Each structure stands twice: as C-alpha cells, then as structure tokens.
Amino acid sequence: MSVAEVRKSTESRMIKSLDALKVSLSKIRTGRAHTGILDHVLVDYYGSPVPVGQVANVNLVDARTISVQPYEKPMASVIEKAIRDSDLGLNPMSMGDTIRVPMPALTEERRRDLTKVVKSEGEDAKVAVRNLRREANESLKKLVKDKDISEDDERRAQDDIQKLTDRHVTEIDKLVTQKEAEIMTV
Predict the structure, then answer these.
(1) Which of its termini does the chain have fewer beta carbons within 10 Å around, N or C?
(2) What was the pLDDT predicted at 186?
(3) Is there a single domain that holds both residue 116 and residue 164?
(4) What secondary structure, in 3-state letters, does 60-71 show?
(5) Which DSSP symbol is given to 28?
C-alpha cells in the first residue's frame, strides 16, 4: 500500500462517516413534518422487518401531518403499532384504511433534548473520523517500518491526513450547528 492509497482510502471512509451523520441527523425531527422521518421505522411484513415506505404510500397532508396509506389493508394496524413503538414520540391515528400521523409541536424542553442528541451524533462522527486518522497513521508507520517510505514522507503524509481530519471535523461541526438552529427555530 502506498501513501496515496492510504490517503485516498482514509478520505473516502471519512466521507462515508460524514454521510452517515447526515442520514442520522435527517432522522431527528424538527417542528415540521417530512416523509423522511418514517424512513427508519421498520414494520414486520410477514416475518421480515421492512421500512414503512415499502409497505405503504407516505405523503404529507400539511406542514404538521403525515398520511400513511398501506398497500394491503391488514398492514394498517401493524404500521400504526410500529410508528407508535418507534423512538420518534409520534401518536398515529387510524382513519379507515389511512393512518394519519400528526406531528406534535416541540416544547422548549424537547427541543433542548433534541439538540443534545444532535451534539451526541456529531461527537460520534468526530470519534469515527479520528479513529480513521489513527488507522491511517498506523498504516504509515507500518510503511516506514517495512522501508517502503522514508520518515520524511511519513511526516508529510501524517500532516496531510491531519488536514483531512480537521476539514472533516469542521464540516461535522457545521452540520451539527445547522441542525441545532433548525430544531430551535419555532
């Protein structure tokens, strides 16, 4: 493995960590309803856990209400139970063959709790990026030990990896700040 390969591998894995953070932040709800909030809710579909979007049509009725229309009638109660049991704090209501999911207004306390969750997700992403930096530095040390690169090359590569890490940590901070502002706006 060369220095360029170590850098490229580390950068792509850091980008994946950033993408994972974006996905987990999108799951955290703000005051407005959006269909993506139900993406990670799994429904028991004949013994297999399946996302709600694969067994029902999910739409927005208005800014505070999501409509879920199952493709099969018997799935309505299962979907309703799955949404209720999720960690989203939602209370779906069955209306015939359609399930309406009203989004309760966030209290100030709940907003603060959500910002704590956002900060925690951000910290987890930073830890992941720093672990990738450590792995890259270990790979570079192994290259020096195997006499594939010089110590000067290792030092330059470590500086490069550090700059990469700093850039991704800054990006994580920016995402966390944006999500906090989104949550705290009424």
Answers:
(1) C
(2) 65
(3) yes
(4) EEECCEEEEEEC
(5) S
Where among 102, 133, 149 does a domain terminate? Answer: 102
Same domain, 16 and 52: no
Among 72, 102, 132, the domain-final residue is 102
CA distance 155 to 71: 59
Cβ within 8 Å of residue 14, ≥6 positions away: 129, 132, 164, 165, 168
Look at the chain and report how many structural domains it folds into: 2
**Mean pLDDT value across residues 74-102:** 86
pLDDT range class, residue 27, cuts 50, 70, 90:
confident
Q: d(Cα 132, Cα 138) in Å, to the nearest integer?
A: 10
Whether the pLDDT of residue 183 is over 80: the answer is yes
Spell out the long-range contacts of 178-185 with Cβ–Cβ below 8 A and sequence spacing 24 or more. Answer: 179/25, 179/28, 179/118, 180/115, 180/118, 180/119, 182/30, 183/28, 183/30, 183/31, 183/106, 183/111, 183/114, 183/115, 183/118, 184/111, 184/115, 185/30, 185/31
- pLDDT band at residue 178 using 50, 70 and 90 as cut-offs: very high
* Per-residue b or e along 104-117, where b marks 16 or more CB atoms closer than 10 Å to that residue's CB: eebeeeebeebbeb
Q: How far apart are CA 110 and CA 74, in angstroms?
A: 34
Domain that holds residue 62: 35-102
Q: What is the pLDDT of residue 3?
A: 86
